[in-house]
User: Fold this.
Amino acid sequence: MAIYCRNCGRPLADDARFCPGCGTPVYSPTPYPASVSRLVRPRAGRMIAGVCQGLANAYAWDVVWVRVITVLLAVFGGGAGLLAYIIFWIVMPEEPLMVPPPAPFEPPR
Assistant:
């Protein structure tokens, strides 16, 4: 995927930290390295609170299977799935908002 400078529009290398043309810092869409998987409730792809989606993302599982197992545990496990879901809902932090840094202000001429 091509990445372009938000200031001057020049194409950037995938590992660039600054634009070679204007020196603007490059905004990284992921705040954490790709090798680190955190147990968080994502804001996208959630059904109720994002617990199953967060577990599936953290351990690279299929979210459908996590949801099916949770429902089966809630129905046939004596409420263990529901209790675990509520505990994870309380304990797991919500994913931080991905707000890009503000563009530099240029006064009108």
In short: The beta strands are 3-4, 11-12. The chain has a mean pLDDT of 81.
